[in-house]
Amino acid sequence: MVYDTLLWPSLLLLLLWPGPLATPGMEDATFPHLGESSQPPPRACPPRCSCPRADTVDCNGLDLRVFPDNITRAAQHLSLQNNQLQELPYNELSRLSSLRTLNLHNNRISSEGEAVATLSLSSNRLRYLPPSLPNNLISKVPRGALSHQTQLRELYLQHNQLTDNGLDATTFSKLRSLEYLDLSHNQLATVPAGLPRTLAVLHLGRNRIRRVEAGRLRGARALRYLLLQHNALGSAGLPAGALRPLRGLHTLHLYGNGLDRVPLALPRRLHALVLPHNRVAALGARDLASTPGLAELNLAYNRLASARVHRRAFRRLRGLRSLDLAGNQLTRLPTGLPAGLRALRLQRNQLRGLEPEPLAGLDQLRELSLAHNRLRVGDIGPGTWHELQALQVRGRLVSRAVPTPPLPAKFFPT
Fold it and tell me: Where are the alpha helices (DSSP H) in 187-248?
């Protein structure tokens, strides 16, 4: 028994002994040393987050209340959306010197305390914040907070609580690469000052803007799309010439602003003017004279009556391709329509008759919507359809005479 007791430890030692001790120069470089693994060491990744690539950290929807630690310095893409973060540590963010995209959508970030670092955050390489800061509680962007983000191309700050006092003339002025700025769904009463000259898209919809001043837009000469829907401009909020500095403006969106007339002295190169759901009651002979390049004009759901639409109101718009006058109070077809018109929407008016004269020469017209009017079989004049060779009639006929193609509703951003 004593012998057996002494033998077992010896056998155990033999089983565990790796062999003769290695001497210098005898190591096998292809074989791992004792206690090492042949696999590369695991990448650092915050608990519960996923890191599908060496430069990507995804912490989406984890109900995080504290900024995650152990984020690799090599991170270029950091997703923190759909959490409960209330503040962001400046020191931790400034450490991530390679960060290029940061997503903070749908958190509880405010402008208080350390959250001031929310916008000064991430080093100097950020190019895109994919809807990153909307749906938070930001009411102020501190002076200089964005001054080093010179590579930033897109900035999303919609659905916050920004006011005029929360921005100043330097807030965006240093963003010399910025092309897209979304400030919709905030509490702004004026257009922000100091907009960068590189800006191409400015979204200011659903604020409280009452007046647009030319001086605020003078620096944004490259602006192509200006979205001002659902503000409070009223009859005096967009004075004549206020948008003149925007010589390259392509699209102006003014849905739901209480406007009582088409704004005057708009940029000559304007391509699309979107004015539905306002209070425009008349169109004069020169109201659209400043925009001869218009291709799309949307005046749907205003208060236009035939007696107050001048017979030459559209004559200068030789490039007009789409005209939407749906939902007004028209009793007859407008005259002087451009020959190149391809879509004419007149549904939901009070049309009582159709004569061939207003449609003469519209040989490129492809879509004509006349649904929900007061037309009957006997109201269609002889020869009305004769010159509309390109017209695509879809759907059924109303009263067996009037084609009502089911045109898709125009999309209006909200």
Answer: 214-217
Residue 394, Cα to own-chain centre: how many angstroms? 33
Tallying the residues shown for the chain, one arrives at: 414
Distance from C-alpha of 262 to C-alpha of 283, rounded to nearest angstrom: 8
Residue 155, H or E segment: strand 154-156
Bridge-based pairing state of the strands 343-345 and 367-369: parallel
Tell me the C-alpha distance between 369 and 394, whole Å: 10
pLDDT of residue 234: 96
Q: How many CB atoms lie within 10 A of CB 392?
A: 11
Query: Could you tell me which of 257, 346, 234, 86 has the C-alpha nearest to residue 226?
Result: 257
pLDDT tens, residue by residue, 69-95 = 889 988 888 899 899 988 777 667 767
pTM, two decimal places: 0.72
Pairing outcome for strands 56-58 and 154-156: unpaired
The answer to whether 316 touches 338, Cβ cutoff 8 Å, is: no
| Nearest one of 57, 66, 59 to 87, comparing CA atoms | 66
* 21-46 as b/e: b if 16+ CB within 10 A: eeeeeeeeeeeeeeeeeeeeeeeebb
Q: With 0-12 CB in 10 A as exposed, 13-18 as middle and 19+ as buried, what is 108?
A: middle
Q: What stretches of 270-374 adopt beta strand conformation (E)? A: 272-274, 296-298, 322-324, 343-345, 367-369
Q: Which helix (H) or strand (E) holds 9?
A: helix 2-16
Distance (Å, rounded) from C-alpha 346 to C-alpha 336?
15
Q: Is 380 helix (H, G, I), strand (E, B) or coil?
A: strand
Residue carrying the six token digits 């996923």: 50
